[in-house]
C-alpha cells in the first residue's frame, strides 16, 4: 500500500474563552492555519486535491460547510474543494485519517487536514440547544430505538467523566495533582520555546492563553464540584477555547513532484467504539486495538498525546495501559492548553510531531475520547 507522509503542521495559538481570538469569525480562524501551512511549505494551493476540516456545533459562523468557507477565505483557488466533518472531539484527527486514506488509496496526492473551533462565539452543545426549538432536547433522547437500547441512561460527558473516576477509584486529589502538572508542564514548554516553531501568531497572540502559572492545589481544593457529591471540578476539565490547526498530508509522488521534505510517516490509523454512556473510555480499547493491528508494543512508542478532556480520562487510560506519565502529554494538555474541539486533533498532532523531533523519538501515538463513545488512534513515525 502507498505511504502517506506528513510534510508539515501548524496551528494558531489557543485563545481562552473571551480572549484574544474570540472575535475572529470561524472561517477566518480556520483560514489562518491554512495560509500559514501553505506559506511554510511553499506549495501551490491550486495543487491541493482536498481540504478536510474538523468542526463541531456547525451553526452560525460554523455552518454551511465552514471547511469550504475557510478555503475561500484563505484565498485558495476556487477549484480547491473543502469539506467539514464531525467526529466530535476527534474531528480533526479523523480529518487526518481521511486525508491519509485518500493518499494511501491513490485517489489523492496532496490534502490538507485541519480543524477549527470558536467556542467563545458558539459554546459547546450550541447545536443541541438550537435543536430545542424543534422539540429535540438532545440528538438522541427522542429516538425510540435509542431509548430501547439505553433506557433511562443520562448521556453527558460530565456524567461519563464522573463514572470513570468512580470505576477506577480516582480521587479528586489525584486529578488535581494531574491538572497542576499539566499547567506546570505547559508553562515549562512555553518558557523553553517548545511551541514556538508550531504556532503561527494571530491577532497579536503568539502563545496559548490558558496556562495558569499561579494555580495551586490549595486553589483547586476550594472549587465547587461540577455535580453535587462528585469528584470533578472545573480545574480538572479541559478549557473552553478558540483555535485552528492544519497538517499537510502527501503521497510519495507529491513529495517528489513538489520538492517536499516529509517530517513524518503515517504508520497506523484506526478508530474504535466503547460505551456511549461512559462516553470517554474508548481510548483504552482503541489503544489496545492499535497495538494488535500493528504488532507493536506500547514500549515501542516514545511519546503519547492523550487528550485531557478530563483528568479522569487520562488517568484511567494510564492505569489500564501501564504507560508512565513521563511519556504522556509531556508539554501539558487540554487542562492547561485548552480544548478547541474541532481543532484539537491536529493541534495534538502538531505538538506531537515537534516534540518527537525535539527529543529524537521515533514513534508517537495520539488518541482522544470523543462523543458517542469513540476514539481515534494515530501512530506517526518521525523521519
Automatic annotation (TrEMBL):
The UniProt record lists the EC number as 2.3.1.9
Q: Per the record's keyword annotation, is Transferase included, yes or no?
A: yes
**InterPro entries, per database record:** Thiolase, Thiolase-like, Thiolase_C, Thiolase_CS, Thiolase_N
Which domain of life does the protein's organism represent?
A: Bacteria
Going by the UniProt record, its keywords in alphabetical order are: Acyltransferase, Transferase
Looking up Gene3D superfamilies in the UniProt record yields:
3.40.47.10
- One Gene Ontology MF term: acetyl-CoA C-acetyltransferase activity
- Tell me the Pfam families matching this sequence: Thiolase_C, Thiolase_N
Q: Thiolase C-terminal domain: from which residue to which, for each copy?
A: 261-382
Q: Where is the Thiolase N-terminal domain?
A: 5-252
**Member of which family?**
Belongs to the thiolase-like superfamily. Thiolase family.
Q: What is this protein called?
A: Acetyl-CoA C-acetyltransferase
Origin organism is: Microbacterium sufflavum
Taxonomic lineage: Bacteria, Bacillati, Actinomycetota, Actinomycetes, Micrococcales
Amino acid at each position: 500500500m502507498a505511504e502517506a507522509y506528513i510534510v508539515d503542521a501548524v496551528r494558531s495559538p489557543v485563545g481562552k474563552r473571551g480572549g484574544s481570538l474570540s472575535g475572529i469569525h470561524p472561517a477566518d480562524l480556520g483560514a489562518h492555519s491554512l495560509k500559514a501551512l501553505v506559506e511554510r511549505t511553499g506549495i501551490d494551493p491550486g495543487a491541493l486535491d482536498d481540504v478536510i476540516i474538523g468542526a463541531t456545533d456547525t451553526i452560525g459562523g460554523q455552518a454551511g460547510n465552514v471547511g469550504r468557507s475557510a478555503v475561500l477565505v484563505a484565498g485558495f483557488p476556487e477549484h480547491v474543494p473543502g469539506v467539514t466533518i464531525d467526529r466530535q472531539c476527534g474531528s480533526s484527527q479523523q480529518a487526518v485519517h481521511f486525508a491519509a486514506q485518500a493518499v494511501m488509496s491513490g485517489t489523492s496526492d496532496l490534502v490538507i487536514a485541519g480543524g477549527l473551533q470558536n467556542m467563545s462565539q458558539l459554546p459547546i452543545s450550541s447545536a443541541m440547544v438550537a435543536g430545542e426549538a424543534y422539540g429535540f432536547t438532545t440528538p438522541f433522547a427522542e429516538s425510540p430505538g435509542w431509548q430501547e437500547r439505553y433506557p433511562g441512561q443520562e448521556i453527558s460527558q460530565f456524567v461519563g467523566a464522573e463514572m470513570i473516576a468512580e470505576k477506577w477509584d480516582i480521587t479528586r486529589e489525584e486529578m488535581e495533582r494531574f491538572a497542576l502538572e499539566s499547567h506546570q508542564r505547559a508553562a515549562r514548554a512555553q518558557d523553553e520555546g517548545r511551541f514556538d516553531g508550531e504556532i503561527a501568531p494571530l491577532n497579536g497572540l503568539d502563545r496559548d492563553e490558558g496556562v495558569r502559572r499561579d494555580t495551586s492545589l490549595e486553589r483547586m481544593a476550594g472549587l465547587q464540584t461540577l455535580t453535587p457529591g462528585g469528584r470533578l471540578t472545573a480545574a480538572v476539565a479541559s478549557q473552553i477555547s478558540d483555535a485552528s490547526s492544519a497538517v499537510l498530508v502527501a503521497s510519495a509522488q507529491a513529495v517528489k513532484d513538489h520538492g517536499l521534505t516529509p517530517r513524518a510517516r503515517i504508520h497506523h490509523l484506526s478508530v474504535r467504539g466503547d460505551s456511549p454512556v461512559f462516553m470517554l473510555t474508548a481510548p483504552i480499547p482503541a489503544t489496545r486495538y492499535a497495538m494488535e493491528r500493528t504488532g507493536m508494543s506500547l514500549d515501542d512508542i516514545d511519546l503519547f498525546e492523550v487528550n485531557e478532556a478530563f483528568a479522569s480520562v487520562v488517568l484511567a487510560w494510564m492505569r489500564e495501559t501501564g504507560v508512565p506519565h513521563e511519556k504522556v502529554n509531556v508539554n501539558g494538555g487540554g487542562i492547561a492548553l485548552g480544548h478547541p474541539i474541532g481543532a484539537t486533533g491536529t493541534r495534538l498532532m502538531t505538538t506531537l510531531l515537534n516534540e518527537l523531533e525535539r527529543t529524537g523519538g521515533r514513534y508517537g501515538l495520539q488518541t482522544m475520547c470523543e462523543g458517542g463513545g469513540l476514539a481515534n488512534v494515530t501512530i506517526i513515525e518521525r523521519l
